[in-house]
Design a protein that fits this description.
about 170 residues, Cyclic Phosphodiesterase, Chain: A, 7 strands, about 25% helix
Length: about 170
């Protein structure tokens, strides 16, 4: 299991992404994030992920979060992977977002099990729409996820910690 630090979306952006999740389910894309009924399942941007995030680094992580709200723009749909794909909305990277990511990475870089793709310069900010979509369904998933607005604008609504093993979340800001 993994642990992460995640940027939450404001209510209008959260609702827009949940609408996309629902459209995917309506189109028969059963790998949509909307299938997960847990209260902690919410649209977010993963800022950091590792196998273990030691509790003694939590205060330093909080201190790295120097901005209360960030303006966010969700861009187009992107597909990660091959035979089984992750479908996501890109997040247009602002200087503030990249700086926040870099500060959090600096604090947590020594944690166990940090994947290469989360490192500054390798990270692609995104909001996941569906996971493990079979290659034969990717086209239908992309079509179902499309909205009339090619970009959605809003802001962040805080930063949370997620413990995937304990299935527990808590706010850092």
């Amino acid at each position: 299991m993994v642990q992460s630090v995640e940027l939450l979306l404001d209510a209008p952006l959260d609702a827009a992404v949940r609408d996309e999740w629902a459209r995917l389910l309506d189109a028969g894309i059963h790998h949509s994030q909307g299938r997960v009924r847990s209260e902690s399942n919410r649209p977010h941007v993963t800022l950091f992920v590792a196998r273990i995030l030691p509790p003694e680094l939590e205060d330093a992580t909080r201190a790295a979060i120097t901005v209360r709200r960030l303006s966010l723009r969700l861009g187009g749909v992107v597909v990660f992977g091959g035979r089984y794909a992750t479908l996501a909305r890109t997040v247009v990277p602002s200087i503030e977002l990249l700086e926040l990511h870099a500060r959090i990475f600096e604090v947590l870089a020594g944690c166990s099990g940090v994947p290469e793709h989360i490192r500054p310069g390798e990270w692609t900010p995104h909001v996941t729409l569906a996971r493990r979509v079979p290659a034969a369904r990717v086209g239908a998933a992309v079509i179902a996820a499309q909205t009339p607005e090619r970009q959605l604008a809003g802001s962040s609504a805080g930063v949370r910690r997620w413990d995937g093993e304990a299935k527990r979340e808590w706010l850092l800001t």
